[in-house]
DUF3828 domain-containing protein
Amino acid sequence: MIKFKLTLFLTAILLTACNQNKTADKPLKSSPLEREKVETKEDKVKNALTFINGYTDNANKMNKAVGMQEWVNSSSLATPHFKKELKRIMDEAYKEDPELGLGSDPVFDAQDNPNAFELESLDENTNYLIVKGKDWPEFTLSMKVVKVNGKWLVDGCGIVNIPNDKRRSRE
């Protein structure tokens, strides 16, 4: 009787192991929450505005602000290309003028800035955005976003990676 129970027990274990192997070879179906989120046009705008408004909030902290380069480098919404170009621009400016550097903020392309930005326009073909100050609508800023690993990131803003013909006038 013990041999029979032992044989039955071992058979059950073997069958269970075989079934687990069969299911392990099949790809698991994920729920909608587990699938990677596909970013949309709204995410393109949202990420650009989150970046520039976060940058603005930091800049407006004055003495409590994190350094420009440090803030940008810590942002998950900026491309490595953007971060590298900002560093290059700043290094070159301080090399030419160790006291003053650039003399303005390259991300704002200005010395002064609004307190917050909102979308003015978006070119879906080129992924250039124009944002304007909420409290200073005459102040506009060009931005460029690119999709990296399925996520929209800022690759240009102000004078950083923005060609002269896309930059906003400061007259």
